[in-house]
Amino acid sequence: MNTITSTAYQFEGQKSVYKGKVREVYSLENDLLVMIATDRLSAFDVVMPKGIPYKGQILNQIATKMMKATEDIVPNWLIDTPDPNVAVGHHCTPFKVEMVIRGYLSGHAAREYKAGRRLICGMPMLEGMKENDKFPDPLITPSTKADNGEHDEDISREEILAKGIVSEEDYVQLEKYTHALFQRGTEIAAKQGLILVDTKYEFGKTADGKIVLIDEIHTPDSSRYFYADGYEERQEKGESQKQLSKEFVRQWLISNGFQGKEGQSIPDMDDAYINSVSERYIELYEKITGETFIKADANNIEARIEKNVSEYLRK
Q1: Residues 6+ apart with CB under 8 A from 313
Q2: At CA 49, angle to CA 48 and CA 51, rounded to 5?
Q3: Are 273 and 51 in contact (CB under 8 A)?
């Protein structure tokens, strides 16, 4: 399968490389970053052995569209996208927390609720809720930004401030930006007949101290969507919601005995399953953006990226 799962470029002016679970970030001179969205698939903070065709392109293009659709309310790091898998932007120092915001009792929050807990990241959850019910108001439930191979951990606002992870002044701004982005994302989703259930945002500071949105935004890797049509009926009947997110991958892994816990082995993903995941990601792209997905040339993705980025940097 034609996928890109790792890179080893030497771009002009390159200083260092950071490899995350899915993205590889090249730091260049003049405070520039080249971020490459690979086709790696991560679930339960574990990278799966095989790549998913077109996944990197899909994530990069959704993130780019959503950055442009929100730049009037929150400044972001993005400058340009010289390749379907690549974004170029300003170098930022990331905050060591991810700003997770939840509009509904789903996913991790629902699992905590089922375990009998009524606090998540210090935020109370009402008694008597069913899975996928809407919260009265969206809850910000931050997590620590884990290093490679480690799990992100829930953390409360109070702990973040007490440990000095983020200053109170900056954290208040992060909260404001998070609520504003989630509101805009909810409006964008509604126009596509979708519900933005929960998502996460990452922020950093530019060299001149400005807080900006970084990484991805409103993609199926960072967000959960429901189809709005039939949501109420499914809730009333106690049925599962029709989802648009990578939750289907998590559920497949769980059904095959894997949740990223010690001693568990990643189940084999055969070519038929890998292709089905790719098709689901394409469906996600088209539903979220309302546009037909156009597959980029995948005959030699590594060479294509190198050519496009090098030409862009020379300009």
Answers
A1: 11, 12, 13, 28
A2: 80
A3: no
Rounded distance between C-alpha atoms, residue 13 and residue 115, angstroms:
51
Which residues neighbour 205 within 8 Å (Cβ) at sequence distance 6 or greater?
92, 93, 95, 211, 212
pTM: 0.89
Mind listing the pLDDT tens digit for each residue in 89-120?
Answer: 999 999 999 999 999 999 999 999 999 999 99
Structure tokens at 41: 């698939």
Shortest CA distance to 39 belongs to which of 57, 65, 17? Answer: 57
Residue 150, pLDDT > 60, answer no
Q: What's the CA gap between 40 and 55, in Å, rounded?
A: 8
Report the Cα–Cα distance between both ends of the chain, in Å, rounded. 33
Q: Are 268 and 56 in contact (CB under 8 A)?
A: no
Question: Per DSSP, what are the bridge partners of residue 89?
Answer: 33, 78
**pLDDT tens-digit series, residues 119-134:** 999 999 999 999 999 9
Provide long-range contacts, Cβ within 8 A and 24+ apart, for 119-126.
120/154, 121/154, 121/155, 121/156, 121/157, 122/156, 122/157, 122/158, 122/159, 123/156
Q: Who wins on pLDDT, 148 or 13?
A: 13
Name the DSSP letter for residue 108.
H
CA distance 219 to 199: 9
The torsion region of residue 234 among left (phi > 0), alpha (psi -120 to 50) and beta comes to alpha
Q: Which tens digits make up the pLDDT trace of 56-97? A: 999 999 999 999 999 999 999 999 999 999 999 999 999 999
Phi, psi of 113 (to 5 degrees): -65, -45
Give the strand pairing for 97-104 and 194-205.
antiparallel
Q: Where are the alpha helices (DSSP H) in the chain?
A: 55-70, 107-114, 157-162, 168-191, 231-237, 247-255, 271-289, 301-314
